[in-house]
Amino acid sequence: MSQTTTPDSWSFPAQRQCPFAPPPRYDTLRAEEPVSKVRLPTGATAWLVTRYDDVRTVLSSPVFSADGTRPGFPTLLPGQAQILRRPPFIRMDPPQHTFYRRMLIQEFTLKRIRTMRPGIQATVDRLLDDLLAQTPPVDLVEAFALPVPSLVICHLLGVPYDDHAFFQSRSKVAVSRATTAEQFATALGELRAYMDGLITRKQREPGDDLLSKLVTEHLEPAGELCREDLLMMCLMLLNAGHETTANMISLGVVALLEHPDQLAALRSDPELLPDTIEELLRYLSIADLVTARIAAEDTELRGTAIRAGEGVIALLAAANWDPGVFPEPGRLDVHRGDRHHVGFGYGVHQCLGQNLARLELEIVFSTLFARIPTLRVAVPVDELPYKDEGLLFGLHELPVTW
């Protein structure tokens, strides 16, 4: 078993040099030091894991805890420790994690999500009608990529979409690594107050939505869910439900437009759409940094000693670009057919909303490229404003024309 190494001096998290590829340093680490120690922006240290098999081990083994309340849990945001004192269920281990996840799972089954197809299709069609009525160039993020998942998750949860500007602006602050601890605390406080007020409204006038169901069936004193846990659960669903899919839509559009042969293959054979979605999820790996863990006991990974209480970050993009698992990982290939990527994570914490995200992406890409066959990016791709400062990679804006 090797001894612990001195934290590397390179800056972590690192920026992507190409919007479609992980930082080049990941290739070096995967080949030469697949379990390596690095210093985080908070000053703490953590282990980076870069090989596909090891990433899946970290995400599935109870030895590596997702419990955000454990001392030393690795964080990348200046105010994240404030959340982790009362974490959402994604930062819990079984059986607590299982307890909360079971309250939600029926709303996200494949059967339930399929019933949402007509509504999502109508939303996409209406937004494209509005977009095409504008004079290009148009910001695809503001006009389409962000409103689609925002409208969908608002409808599912029972959140008034008229409030979207408020919660999107606060969520943007909360997930940015450029945010100060004070800014983070302010944004989180405003989001909590908003959700607390919404819970009160649902108690008075419940509707046919997920938040009303959680309030009427699970909230104390009649149920087993305390108000604070319900509040954090709904904030997590609201934020994750629009931010991740919006980034996938905008980046996916750019990736396909930059690979016209792959877009042409999809257009000539619509049956390739599901495989195209999976390949984009692997290729873009926008949630690279969200899978933090902490060792619950002394262990080792690939011969490297990891002590109890040491942080571990399983890099999803590094795993999804592991050439030992995905040959020529830097090649976007809609015929690849590999569905065992870790774009949605892995193990018991694998993304709850993955069925919904896949459906939204399928409807978006099939409809967008059919209705606007001449769609193109209005500026050079290397001049686009990328989200290098966030936990999730994406685009702030995407000017397009046709």
> Can you list the strand order of the major beta sheet?
1-2-8-5-3
Write the CATH architecture name: Orthogonal Bundle
- Count of folded domains: 1
Radius of gyration, rounded? 21 Å
Rough shape? globular
Helical segment count: 16
Q: How are the SSEs placed, and which strands pair?
A:
Blueprint: H1 25-32, E1 35-39, E2 45-49, H2 52-60, E3 64-65, H3 80-84, H4 96-104, H5 110-114, H6 117-132, E4 138-139, H7 140-145, H8 147-157, H9 164-174, H10 181-204, H11 210-218, H12 227-258, H13 260-268, H14 273-284, E5 292-295, E6 299-301, E7 304-306, E8 311-314, H15 316-320, H16 354-371, E9 376-377, E10 399-401
Parallel strand pairs: 2-8
Antiparallel strand pairs: 1-2, 3-5, 4-10, 5-8, 6-7, 9-10
Helix pairs in contact: 6-8, 6-16, 8-12, 9-10, 10-12, 12-16, 14-16
Provide a brief overview of the structure.
By secondary structure, the protein is α+β, with helices and mostly antiparallel strands.
Structural write-up:
This protein has 402 residues and is α+β, with helices and mostly antiparallel strands. It has a single domain, classed as Orthogonal Bundle (Cytochrome p450). The chain is built from 16 helices and 10 strands. It has helices spanning 25-32, 52-60, 80-84, 96-104, 110-114, 117-132, 140-145, 147-157, 164-174, 181-204, 210-218, 227-258, 260-268, 273-284, 316-320, 354-371, and strands at 35-39, 45-49, 64-65, 138-139, 292-295, 299-301, 304-306, 311-314, 376-377, 399-401. The chain has a 5-stranded mixed β-sheet. A 3-stranded antiparallel β-sheet has the order 4-10-9. A two-stranded antiparallel ribbon has the order 6-7. β1 and β2 (45-49) form a beta hairpin. α6 packs parallel to α16 (354-371), α10 (181-204) packs across α12 (227-258) and α12 packs parallel to α16 (354-371). It is globular, with a radius of gyration of 21 Å. The termini are far apart.
